[in-house]
Amino acid sequence: MNRVVHPIEQESFRRLRARLDTSHFPPLTRAVVERVIHSAADLEYASDLVTDEGALEKAHAALHAGAPVVVDVEMVAAGITRRETVCRLRDAVAGPGLTRSAHAVRLAYEQVGPGALWVIGCAPTALEELLALDASPALVIGLPVGFVGAAESKAALRESGLPAVSNVSEKGGSAVAAAALNALLYTPLSHSDSHSEEKP
User: Fold this and answer.
1) pTM of the predicted model, to two decimals?
2) Which site among 117, 143, 189, 194 is 20 to 30 Å from 87 CA-CA?
């Protein structure tokens, strides 16, 4: 079943593409870059995001085959419109040297095991905890925001060699993290011959 795209969203993407040429990106990278920019109205993400098309292709296949999606906070879950997500923050407690967000990651991993897609848009400590686990993720969308630990946790994600979407700067957040996952959800499995996701 195709997603019905609102005319305002269609016009927003038209204006985005009029201001920024994204045609040189491979298909899934383009989908992620455009949807993240659309969610934040921030063209700088075109050069700030770090992606790998091969990793996105494998994650896209896993996602459409039903792999679990884990989020760090309910705000990320609220932005993911076409898939149930796992968020264990309400069950988590802080402890010595352990934030609630980090504990929530541990609880989520105990629940879903390896092969999940992890979407982290709020807490750098959630991303740090995920990197400390042997989670074997299908993809880590690591886009936490903040002046303390965000850029460093994303750099650690890139250094880990895990399949990932990240960005270099301190910016990020729940909306852009959800948008990156939605880009993969909205792109049909038959995307390989096209340079565009579901219109827009």
Assistant:
1) 0.91
2) 189
